[in-house]
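Recall that a protein's primary structure is simply its ordered list of amino acids. Everything else, from secondary elements to tertiary packing, is in principle encoded there. The following example makes that idea concrete.
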Amino acid sequence: MTTTILITKISSLPPSLLKEVNDFVDFLKSKKKNNIKERKFGCAKGMILMHDDFDAPLEDFKEYL
C-alpha cells in the first residue's frame, strides 16, 4: 500500500472516524517507542569492579616513568 492510497482513504473518512485513526496512529507510535527501554541513572551500579590500584603505574612501563 502506498502513502498516496492511504492518504486518499483517510481523507474520505468522516471527522468522527478521523479521531479514531489519529488515536490508533498514536498507539502504534507509542508501541514502537516502548520497545526502546529508557535507561535510568545508576542502573549498572555494582556491575563494574574497579580495583584500588587502578591508577597505579604498570610494572611494564616503570623504565619509561
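The mean pLDDT is 86. The radius of gyration is 28 Å.
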